Amino acid sequence: MSSISLFRVATRAVRPSGFIRTPQLPRCRVQAPIAVAINRPNFSTTTKRLSGQHEDETYEEFSARFEKEFDSVQDVFELQRNLNNCFAYDLVPSVEVLSAALKAARRVNDFPTAVRVFEGIKAKVETQEQYKQYLESLEGLRQELGVALREELYPEEA
Which residues form a coiled coil (predicted)? Predict the structure, then answer.
């Protein structure tokens, strides 16, 4: 064995950084670089919410925003995503928003989603009377678009 290869083996065996080595964490568990975490003190125990843009939105602004979103729908995914977002709030959408959603469902040719709009209304309202008022308001558009209710499609389940 030559002296160069002995030197390589000897230097590999002794690692001066081994005495002060910090334990390595998997990359998926590391949240921020250490330098950033050391230089910036974190006094909060909660995370900062960046999606607070709609916190103080009035019902009219909510309706206008979703009408605009439903008017710009181009495919079924966008329609269903907007419907999920619209019905996720603790309120029942206005008739104008629902008519825009029904027109968008017709535009993307999605009959099941149009039927589900009415199921969403039925789930969101507090009483059957409110549901009937929504049905009366949307009756003309419903007949124009040819959207049947679930109660009409499956009368034995209702």
Answer: 124-151
